[in-house]
Amino acid sequence: MEANDVIRELFQIINGMNSQTRVQDAVVHALKTEHRTLQQSFFRYVVIPAILKLADDYDRGFYDERNEGACRAAKEMKAVAEKAYLPFI
What we know:
Elements: H1 3-15, H2 20-33, H3 36-59, H4 68-83
Helix pairs in contact: 3-4
């Protein structure tokens, strides 16, 4: 399965009714029990780029009521995300 397929599947599950908590619990459990290098890689390759992208969207006004909160929160996190030191060890 390709990465794009996995992400699409995850978003389809999130979009399903009453699945948000199950997905959140599953992601948090997987993250905390996964190898520590993979935990860091997840932040390096997924979390930080997502924060920076949404912060940029907020700066450019590329949001609406459906994602304004996420973009605004990302904007507030941007300075921390930019300074994050996440080496591959």
